[in-house]
Each structure stands twice: as C-alpha cells, then as structure tokens.
C-alpha cells in the first residue's frame, strides 16, 4: 500500500525526493503524451505538415486552459500541504473542496468563452486559409473536454500533496494509455483526422478525471472532498489564487509568446514555419518534463516541512532539486546541439520541415534551458511557502 504523508517530515530528504520525483517525472512524461501523441499521428496524415500547423495555431488556447488548472491546483495544493504540516487537516479539506468547485466553474466559463470566440482568436493567432479548418475541427471537440482537463490536472495536485505520488502518476498514465490506443483508431481507422485526435484526447482526460475523483472521494485519501466545504469562499480562494498566479502567468505567457511567433511566422514563413514552431514547442515540452517532475516531487516535501517548522529540511531539498535540474539540462543541451534532426524526425520527415526545424533548434535552445530552469524552479519551489509572486512576474 502506498505511504501517506507521514514520512515527509522524517525520512531522508534524498530518498524522499527520489521516491516522490520518480513517479512525478513519469507522470509528467505521460501527461504531455495527451497532446504530443496527437501531433505525432497528425504529422503522419496526408497533408500532415498543414494539419500540424493548424493544430499548432490552436496551442495558445490549449495552454490557457491548462494554465487555469495550474492557477487553482498549484495554488491550492501547497496551501493544503502546509495545513497538513500544521496538523490542520480540516482546513486543508476546505481548501481542496473549494478548489474543486472553482475548477468546475472555470471549466464552464472557458468552454463557453472559447466556443464563442475561437474563430477570430485563431485568425489572430496566425491561422491561414489552409490551416483554419484543422484548427477549428480540433478545438470544436477538444473544448468539450475542458472540465476533464481542469479536474484531472488541477485536482491531481491534491493527490500528490498528500504523498500519494504513485496514485498521482496513475492519473495520467491511465489517460495517456487510452489516448495512445484510441489515436490511430480514430485518426486513421475511422478516418476522422484531427477530429479523431481531439476525441481520443478528451475521452482519455475524462477517464483520468474519474480516477482522480474516485480517489479524493474514497477511503484511501487522507483529505476528502466534502460537500459542506464546496461553496467557494473568498477567504479560502483568494489565497489560492494569490499562490497560483505565478504558475498561471508562466503558462499564460507561453501562450502569448506562441501567439506572437505564429503570427509573424505565418507572415514571413508561411504554414511550414508555423509547423516548425509546433514541432519545437512539442520537443521543448517533452525534454523539460524530468525537471518539472523533480520540482513537483519536491513541493510536498517543502510545503509539509515549512508548515512543521523544519527549515533545515526545506533548504536541503531546494539545493538537491537545483543540482538535479541543472545537471540534467546540461546533458540535454549537448544532445540537442549534436542530434537536432533526430528529435525533429519523430514528428515529421518532410525534408524542408526537417531542415528548417533542425537549424532553428540550435538557435532557440542554445540558452533557454538554463533560463527556464531558473524561472520554473523558483516559481515551483517558492510557491510551496507562499512567496512566489515575484518569480511569476520574472517569467514575463
């Protein structure tokens, strides 16, 4: 049976970080497969380059939806962990139950808002006559599953917060496995194209959301979602929003960068350049996952020990996390500089696209990993003790 949070304040920091970071890394890798696997299969469709560009134009909307789950999940999770460290589980349950309600409300608002405004937004984001159809087809279906994204990603943080890292990993592993199985069936078997990719994704996310709710309403969870605490209260939600704003800003600014890039790339390089950017974004997402997993594994350790006043363990965890992330980034940088074409060919083997993207990778990725490490590590770690807002703004 998986251990609860009871060892977070006493077990060896190195052993604990490894125990929590390993499933978190696996979960991050599997989680990104929701969109990455879609792109790999889409890239192998007829007119795959154009379809890839079309879905790439929709990325900013997908990123904003994900950012909203971070706003609540990464704001509420550390606060709940701090309350657990203070031996105040009742207050932690209030935070978790309020967070659940707000995530559902956000999902409804996002679905309605993007359903109404998606077409003008897509044109603004860099769509062309040849790509707008693919963008619309993908989003029309993807937006139906917005509530699943909010619950599976936002509430999974509360599973990890309690020390159930393996259960948190299974949340995304189950969904990703379903997505990988359904993608080729829907895209090629049923000849649904990008619609099939979106449908496979929301079915997978729906199953993940059910898994999360079954656990948080079930007997194994230390904290329970309780109906009596589900009515949102400003005194609970405002601190959650205050803490979650930094990861939200970091994720949202990525969307703004993509909007600006896609618009100019479409103007000067056409659909091929937009497709190239979609591939580079996918590569970045995949390769930075281990670092994200390490910081997520460190969060419950830091929050719990901060809440219980064990600041020496907080400092030790931070230093170990920093060393791990920078070591990995150095190895990763070397591989990208030497073998860029290998990573690009995973998505598409079009000679023009391969050449353009391989050249671009060396320029864009020559420095960004260390900058990303600094911003992400600061935001993720400092968010665990309510001191992260300055780091969120530094990401802009």
From TrEMBL:
GO terms for biological process: response to antibiotic. InterPro entries: MATE_fam (IPR002528), MATE_MepA-like (IPR045070), MATE_MepA_subfamily (IPR051327), MdtK-like (IPR048279). The chain crosses the membrane at residues 16-37, 57-79, 100-118, 138-159, 171-190, 196-218, 230-250, 270-289, 320-347, 353-372. Keywords: Antibiotic resistance, Cell membrane, Membrane, Transmembrane, Transmembrane helix, Transport. It is a multi-pass membrane protein. Its main location: membrane. GO terms for cellular component: plasma membrane. GO terms for molecular function: antiporter activity; xenobiotic transmembrane transporter activity. The keyword Hydrolase does not apply. It is found in: Cell membrane. Belongs to the multi antimicrobial extrusion (MATE) (TC 2.A.66.1) family. MepA subfamily. PANTHER family: MULTIDRUG EXPORT PROTEIN MEPA, SPORULATION PROTEIN YKVU. NCBIfam families: matE. This is Multidrug export protein MepA. It comes from Clostridioides difficile (Peptoclostridium difficile). The lineage of its organism: Bacteria, Bacillati, Bacillota, Clostridia, Peptostreptococcales. The gene is mepA_3.
